[in-house]
């Protein structure tokens, strides 16, 4: 294959970011193109159809399904209140009347003359979508949502837990190698997005939740730590709906791993500024990575996004993403075109990386990612 | 199109979820042979959102590698003349997550199970099975249908002349859910009704307006019989007409192909069935991918397919560890490793799924995980590939309910003749003996079983080709697709390590193999020898304990593997001893370069 490499994660500033904010089904858009919005502003709204409730009407009335229509007080499509009578049998000689009351507030959806089932639809639930980040509306998706644009500092992580949140950036370590321990976290971190170093202990995670921090960005996390914190193992990498009171964004991977210097520098530079974060990760189909978005008030010239579709080039900074050199950063020194035999006896396309210490390492091209700046 | 016998050059592609693979087949003399394979990333997702981009790129690679001219601009050149053009183009597809279906039936163990088998056999992933007795509340079923957004629904239920009200209840549940298709809006979700003929009218009244309804023959017309063909065919047709036609670029691709596009696993299934039919043998095929593992089997002519949706080697590798448990994975690892280290390595592979092992330690770990993924997928297959439940002595439906547990698995490892492995981990293992060893450890074949791998994952292409040109498909399959690994001899039973397990006599030479031992007898590809094998009184090779058998052993790139570790296979409980044994067995089969027989 022409380009066997992993596109890297974006860790960059002055980046023009566009976010589509869509309703799960059609509804009303509340803003216009070129409106300025705050992250918490509601931009679109709709109503989800209510839950369905079934009632074995024929059974309860003691009649056969075909005759049900004679006993209905409410018609299909009519609204009903909870406790309102919807059907009634006259009973023998007008005695032993049976009245069936609606178990919910909603409307009559269908009455079946074959199964004798009544289907009720509950009241709709309102659904709202906010703007997620401060910015301006650049496009409207008719009846569905909007596109928000902002110039931001943008840090993508490799894996995350928990959904969208917003908070003030607060570094809690002195350097990118430091482990986040409980003593580094206190009550003043309520509502903050904490920036850590190489690792976080389970106790520190629990303390962060206890003090009400909304997010934690850290280089690595232990598999066991995450398992204990969530109470279950992550099977397939589809996350974002965990409800553990905090959004966690891992920038490098599993295990103790120093946060990359570039990500650490960018994040700590914005101490005290508002960030929008999202831990949602989906690795299959569509690749969704967790992110920290810091809208910039003053922007310098906006960077033109670099085209990485051509593959890796000599001189480019890459990170090795597989053992035994996991996490090593270096410059591409050589890109031999022939397949080479590696330790496993596989013949693969390789590249040579010159590390920051000047060592030359030979690795399969599939095992590096470009550091996109 | 030319006459079938005159077809000179055939192009076939498989649009996978990550890679599009093209193969070129040419008639050389009187037979069809593979010329080359090219590949390119699949382009169904943004930014391309057009599957034909990837197809064109894969074809261009074929052009570059062969010097043949197949495309003029973006058009295929017809017919084949000299070194340019083709006569036939076919394709399969599993891009965009393949075909995802929900099935429904009245009784979970009967019509619902038959419906699931029909969907799986057609190449679908079954997202959920809804049944009247699934113990879920109606509103929960409705939520499920709505949330899962299947590509298609197969509704069955009731034998002909049987229950109508239960079937209608299922139809009403679907009606209330008002399911929306996954790809795009503005078209109706295809729904196939293959249930009780008497319920057709009522089903039509309820679902005709909300879905694109197709009615076919009942897939379980009577309890004693399944009739899955019509439902499977309808699935294939609707997959093309509705699902694929709405996926990005497929309309164009459908116009290019000379035969309907088939779902990839459906095509692999056709190929496995074709081998079983042709040789009149029992066959199992396994395809271990990044996200899923598919198993196909034909036992006594009965075809079954299962897909283990979350057992794979990259995207779902983390789930393999969760489902198997750390101990089960670590038992195949021939060196010391902490649980934390294992957990971190596996999760790192999950979040960076395209990386490859670069050290032997990583390779051994990956192959340990593959053994567990394959073992778990086989367990799931055994549960699904069963005889019809509740049909042997039923007189009334209540009898049938009582016999629910009688459906026993059709998978009999002693009667299995051939295992064909495919998918990156097996097809591209650096050393073929690794692929053989993974298959033996995970499937634990019994008696005499031939082993092979699909050299470059060509079975989908050949499967769809077999629907229009059987001769070309079978010739390429036999000559170019399969790499014969060899034969496995594995007696059933157990005895303390060191006792004689079997004696093999080949060409007048006798070889003794002891309990707990693995041995490799070299026998080249293409060679066949007759052998007389006598198990000791503790072991059975299919004829009973201690009973001698005669067999023809087929050679291969690995040879004849004699596995006298016993069945069921039990590894030493003591960790140190277990690691030593693993190393000894690896050495016997020359599996890894650092553990070779010197």
List keywords for this structure.
heterodimer, A: 373 residues, mainly beta, Glucose Oxidase, domain 1, OB fold (Dihydrolipoamide Acetyltransferase, E2P), SH3 type barrels, 3 domains, eleven-stranded mixed sheet, six-stranded antiparallel sheet, 4 helices, 9% helix, disordered N terminus, B: 598 residues, alpha/beta, Nucleotidyltransferase, domain 5, Rossmann fold, eight-stranded mixed sheet, five-stranded mixed sheet, 18 helices, 34% helix, 25% strand
Task: Give a structural overview.
- The complex is a heterodimer of chains A (373) and B (598).
- Chain A contains four helices and 30 strands.
- Mean pLDDT of chain A is 88; it is low at 1-5.
- Chain A has 373 residues and is mainly beta.
- Chain B is an alpha/beta fold.
- In chain B, helix 5 links the parallel strand 10 and strand 11.
- In chain B, the strands form five sheets. An eight-stranded mixed sheet of chain B has the order 15-14-13-16-17-18-24-21, sandwiched between helices. In chain B, strands 3-2-1-6-12 form a five-stranded mixed sheet, sandwiched between helices.
- Chain B has three domains: 4-86, ATPase, nucleotide binding domain (Nucleotidyltransferase, domain 5, 2-Layer Sandwich); 96-256, Rossmann fold (3-Layer(aba) Sandwich); 283-314 and 362-591, no CATH class.
- The interface between A and B is large, with 53 and 58 residues.
In short:
The complex is a heterodimer of chains A (373) and B (598). Chain A is mostly beta strands and 373 residues long.
């Amino acid at each position: 294959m022409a380009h066997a490499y992993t596109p890297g994660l974006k860790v960059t500033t002055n980046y023009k970011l566009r976010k589509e904010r869509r309703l799960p089904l059609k509804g009303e858009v509340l803003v216009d193109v070129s409106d300025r919005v705050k992250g918490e502003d509601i931009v679109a709204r709709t109503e989800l159809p209510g839950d369905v409730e079934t009632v074995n009407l024929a059974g309860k009335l003691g009649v056969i399904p075909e005759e049900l229509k004679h006993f209905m007080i409410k018609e299909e499509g009519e609204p009903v209140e909870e406790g309102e009578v919807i059907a009634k049998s006259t009973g023998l000689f007008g005695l032993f009347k049976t009245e069936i009351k609606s178990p919910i507030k909603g409307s009559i959806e269908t009455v079946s003359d074959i199964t004798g089932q009544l289907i009720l639809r509950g009241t709709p639930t309102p659904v709202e979508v906010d703007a997620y980040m401060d910015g301006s509306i650049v496009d409207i998706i008719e009846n569905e949502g909007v596109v928000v644009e902002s110039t931001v500092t943008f840090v993508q992580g490799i894996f995350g837990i928990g959904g969208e949140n917003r908070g003030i950036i607060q570094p809690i370590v002195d350097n990118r190698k430091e482990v986040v321990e409980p003593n580094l976290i206190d009550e003043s971190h309520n509502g903050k997005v904490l920036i850590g170093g190489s690792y976080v202990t389970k106790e520190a995670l629990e303390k962060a939740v206890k003090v009400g921090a909304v997010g934690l960005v850290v280089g690595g996390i232990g598999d066991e730590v995450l398992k204990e914190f969530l109470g279950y193992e992550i099977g397939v990498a589809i996350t974002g709906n965990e409800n553990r009171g905090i959004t966690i964004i891992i920038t490098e991977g599993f295990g103790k791993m120093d946060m990359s210097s570039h990500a650490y520098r960018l994040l700590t530079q914005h101490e005290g500024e508002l960030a929008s974060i999202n831990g949602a990760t989906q690795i299959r189909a569509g690749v969704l990575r967790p992110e920290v978005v810091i809208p910039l008030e003053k922007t310098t010239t906006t960077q033109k996004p670099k085209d990485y579709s051509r593959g890796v080039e000599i001189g480019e900074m890459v990170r090795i993403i597989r053992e035994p050199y996991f996490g090593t950063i270096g410059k591409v020194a050589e890109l031999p075109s022939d397949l080479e035999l590696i330790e496993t006896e596989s013949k693969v396309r390789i590249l040579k990386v010159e590390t920051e210490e000047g060592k030359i390492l030979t690795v399969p091209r599939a095992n590096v990612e470009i550091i996109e700046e | 199109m030319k006459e079938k016998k005159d077809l000179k050059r055939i192009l076939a592609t498989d649009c996978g979820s990550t890679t599009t693979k093209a193969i070129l087949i040419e008639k050389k003399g009187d037979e069809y042979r593979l010329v080359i394979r090219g590949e390119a990333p699949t382009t169904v997702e943004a930014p391309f959102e057009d599957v034909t981009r990837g197809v064109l790129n894969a074809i261009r690679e074929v052009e570059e590698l062969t010097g043949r001219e197949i495309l003029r601009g973006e058009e295929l050149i017809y017919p084949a003349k000299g070194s340019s053009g083709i006569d036939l183009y076919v394709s399969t597809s599993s891009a965009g997550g393949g075909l995802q279906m929900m099935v429904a039936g009245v009784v979970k163990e009967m019509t619902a199970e038959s419906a699931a088998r029909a969907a799986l056999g057609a190449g679908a992933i079954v997202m959920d099975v809804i049944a009247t007795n699934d113990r879920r509340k109606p509103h929960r079923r409705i939520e499920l249908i709505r949330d899962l957004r299947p590509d298609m629904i197969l509704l069955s239920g009731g034998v002909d002349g049987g229950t109508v009200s239960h079937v209608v209840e299922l139809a009403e549940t679907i009606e209330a859910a008002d399911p929306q298709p996954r790809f795009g809006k503005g078209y109706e979700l295809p729904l196939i009704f293959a249930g009780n003929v008497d319920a057709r009218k009522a089903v039509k009244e309820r679902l005709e307006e909300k879905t694109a309804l197709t009615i076919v023959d009942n897939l379980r017309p009577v309890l004693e019989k399944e009739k899955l063909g019509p439902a499977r065919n309808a699935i294939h047709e609707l997959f093309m007409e509705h699902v694929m036609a709405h996926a990005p670029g497929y309309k164009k691709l459908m116009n290019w192909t000379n035969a309907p596009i088939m779902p990839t696993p459906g095509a692999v299934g056709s190929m496995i069935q074709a081998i079983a039919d042709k040789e009149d043998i029992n066959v199992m095929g396994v395809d271990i991918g990044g996200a899923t593992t598919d198993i196909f089997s034909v036992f006594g002519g009965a075809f079954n397919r299962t897909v283990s949706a979350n057992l794979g080697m990259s995207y779902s590798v983390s789930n393999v560890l969760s489902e198997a448990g750390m101990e089960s994975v670590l038992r195949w690892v021939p060196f010391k490793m902490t649980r934390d280290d294992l957990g971190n390595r596996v999760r790192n592979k999950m979040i960076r799924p395209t990386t490859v092992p670069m050290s032997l330690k990583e390779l051994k770990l990956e192959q340990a995980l593959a053994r567990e993924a394959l073992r778990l997928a086989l367990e799931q297959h055994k549960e699904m590939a069963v005889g019809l439940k509740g049909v042997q002595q039923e007189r009334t439906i209540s009898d049938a309910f009582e016999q629910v547990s009688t459906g026993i698995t059709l998978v009999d490892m002693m009667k299995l003749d051939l295992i064909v492995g495919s998918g990156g981990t097996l097809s591209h293992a650096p050393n073929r003996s690794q692929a053989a060893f993974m298959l033996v450890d995970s499937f634990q074949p019994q008696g005499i079983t031939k082993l092979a791998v699909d050299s470059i994952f060509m079975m989908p292409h050949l499967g769809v080709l077999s629907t229009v040109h059987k001769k070309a498909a079978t010739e390429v399959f036999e000559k170019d697709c399969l790499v014969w690994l060899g034969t496995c001899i594995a007696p059933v039973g157990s005895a303390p390590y060191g006792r004689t397990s079997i004696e093999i006599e080949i060409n007048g030479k006798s070889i003794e193999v002891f309990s707990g031992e693995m041995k490799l007898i070299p026998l080249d590809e293409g060679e066949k020898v007759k052998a007389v094998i006598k198990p000791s009184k503790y072991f059975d090779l299919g004829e009973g304990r201690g009973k001698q058998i005669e067999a023809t052993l087929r050679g291969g790139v690995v040879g004849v593997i004699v596995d006298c570790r016993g069945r069921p296979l039990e590894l030493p409980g003591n960790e140190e001893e277990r690691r030593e044994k693993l190393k000894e067995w690896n050495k016997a089969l020359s599996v890894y370069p650092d553990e070779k027989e010197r």
